Amino acid sequence: MHPALLHPVILGIALGSQLLSPVSDRVPKLDVETTCKGSVETDKTMGLDLPQSYQTCMNDENSAEQQLGPIWSTYSETVQKSCYDEAVAAGISSYVDLLICLQMNDPMRTTPVTTLKGASRKRNAN
After folding, report:
1. Residue span of the structural domain in which 46 resides
2. How far apart are alpha carbons 102 and 72 in whole angstroms?
């Protein structure tokens, strides 16, 4: 085979194998403890009438992580990466944000989490 013809073949195999690569089967580990501590401190600093407790934040984050377990590997690697990047943006990690992102990509596949706030950057909007 002529060397010039080999390159497109190798390229085709490489591209094809990328499409078939398995998605991650485990939910990424996030440091929600630190994020919840920071969230509680921010609430106190802002003087909120009903600040969220650390335990409530952690309960929400743990609930979101449990909901992610059975569905995480059903999403494409592209969606997983995009949602992971959003969930850890600006050094703030949140399983609630990760779950919400997946729901926004396909709202019919997961259970609504509108009552979960956790350390989500979106929680003050509710």
Report:
1. 24-125
2. 9
